[in-house]
Specification:
Elements: E1 9-10, H1 15-24, H2 27-30, H3 39-55, E2 65-68, H4 72-77, E3 83-84, E4 89-90, E5 94-97, H5 98-106, H6 140-151, E6 163-164, E7 170-177, E8 180-188, H7 190-201, E9 209-213, H8 233-241
Parallel strand pairs: 1-9, 2-5, 8-9
Antiparallel strand pairs: 3-4, 6-7, 7-8
Length: 278
């Protein structure tokens, strides 16, 4: 997932960033966005298949709801790429923001979890769940570096230190693995994304991987997130998110099934305001 400088890979998990890239950028950017689906769409590809087989019910009768801190995840779920052609139905039926879910559950008098526990739908999956690393936006940059280290035969912990650049939402880390230098960055918020895009266009962006998120401070501060009374509470949210003990990062499969991949295409510009494509 990491390639040579000037043609590095860019993260794909943020639908706001993907929408911006498809509407405003050409192949120079789109061709280097990771083809691996976002976590929501990977779950969309798995949940209905796993549950329908396990419960012996038709695929179309499984209703998949995703709760996300982001309104743009609703747009992502509606993409034609994430509709099962075999079963002619959406892989993710409904996306609720965390704020919407909070309001919904607040109006329900019964305890939805009474007498129930969370099940492990994918307990037997060859792609086991691993707890978060690298903050509240998925830790993709950290995962990439860990994967590179394992691929190069490096065992044990990998020291990754991000340093702040122009602002707290623009970070970079330079890690030497087996004598080779790898450079990764995190750019959150459209101001930083646009600055990164300008560097890419002028061939001055020499990162191997860039984790891009449209929201300042990343996903835990997403537009659909429950509103905090104090901006300082965000650090508490991050602490809770990362409080689960982290399992040792395992080697991922060298090849992913096609079902976990997607593609991106530039949105054609229309001269009519009534013919906007998303």
């Amino acid at each position: 997932a990491v390639v040579s400088t000037q043609s590095g890979h860019y993260g794909r998990a943020c639908p706001g960033w993907i929408c911006y890239a498809e509407k405003t950028q050409g192949a120079a950017v789109l061709d280097h966005i990771s083809r691996i689906r976002s976590p929501q769409s990977i779950m969309g590809a798995l949940v209905k298949s796993v549950v329908s087989q396990r419960e012996s019910v038709p695929y179309s009768q499984v209703y998949h709801v995703s709760v996300m801190p982001c309104y743009d995840k609703k747009l992502e779920a509606s993409r034609a790429d994430f509709v099962s052609k075999e079963h002619d139905c959406a892989e993710t039926d409904l996306v609720l923001s965390t704020a919407e879910a909070f309001d919904l559950w607040g109006n329900i008098s019964t305890d939805l979890m009474e007498g129930r526990s969370f099940d492990s739908v994918l307990a037997d999956s060859p792609f086991p769940y691993e707890t978060p690393v690298g903050g509240g936006s998925g830790g993709f940059a950290e995962r990439i570096l860990h994967h590179v280290a394992r691929s190069l035969g490096v065992s044990g912990p990998l020291e990754i230190n991000f340093k702040q650049l122009r602002n707290k939402d623009l970070l970079e880390a330079i890690v030497v693995i087996n004598g080779t230098e790898f450079r990764v960055a995190k750019a959150y918020g459209f101001r930083n994304i646009q600055n990164i895009i300008q560097k890419i266009k002028h061939k001055r962006c020499n990162y191997d991987y860039i984790e891009l998120m449209a929201c300042p401070a990343g996903c835990l501060n997403g537009g659909g997130q429950i509103k905090l009374e104090d901006s300082g509470e965000l650090s508490g949210v991050t602490a809770v998110y990362t409080s689960v003990s982290t399992d040792e990062i395992k080697n991922s499969k060298p090849l992913l099934p096609e079902i976990f991949l997607t593609s991106y295409k530039a949105v054609e510009k229309s001269t009519s305001a009534l013919n906007t494509q998303w």
